[in-house]
Amino acid sequence: MLQQDSNDDTEDVSLFDAEEETSNRPKKSKIRHPVASFFHLFFRVSAIVVYLLCELFSSSFIACMVTIILLLSCDFWAVKNVTGRLMVGLRWWNHIDEDGKSHWVFESRKASAQESKTVSEAESRIFWLGLIACPVLWVIFAFSALFSFRVKWLAVVIMGVVLQGANLYGYIRCKVGSRKNLTNMATSYLGKQFLKQNAGEDQTS
What predicted TM-score, i.e. pTM, was given to this entire model? Predict the structure, then answer.
C-alpha cells in the first residue's frame, strides 16, 4: 500500500512483493549475503583509509582526490541500490510522475507476523554500524580540515559527508517512516519521560 506524505511529497511503501517469499526463511545470526556485506564496508572504509594515508604514498593531490571520490561514488550506489535491500530489506529512491513532480519514496518490507525472520541479525548490525560510523568520521574530518586550514581537502571531505549522510538519512526515513512518524515518536518519548519524572517526584513527596 502506498502512503503519501502530503507535506513533503514523500511516500512510504512496501518493498517488492516478490521478496515476501523470504519471510519463510528462519532468522539466523550468520551472514546470509557475504558479498553484499563485504562491499557495504569495502568502499566506505577504503575511502577513509585513502584519505588518511594518501599523502604518505603519493604527492599528487589530484590522484588522491579522484580515488576518494570514485570510492565514495561506488559506495553511494552500492549502499543505496544493493546492500540496503539485501541486508535489511530497505530502499529509498526518487521518481518523477507524469506531471513532472518529484517524489521521494522510502521502501521497506511489508509488516507481517514473520517479518522478524527476514533479516539476519549479524547483517543488520554490520549495515547500521557502517552506515552510521563512517559519516560521523567524515564530519570529524571536515572539522579537522577546517581548523587545520587544509582548504584543498575540504571539498573532498564535504563530498564524503554529503554522499554518506544522504544514505544515512534515507535509510533512517525508511526505518522510522515519514517525518510525521518521527515527530510523533520524539513527542511520545518526551511525554513518557515527563510522566516518569512526575511519578518519581510524587513518590518522594
Answer: 0.70
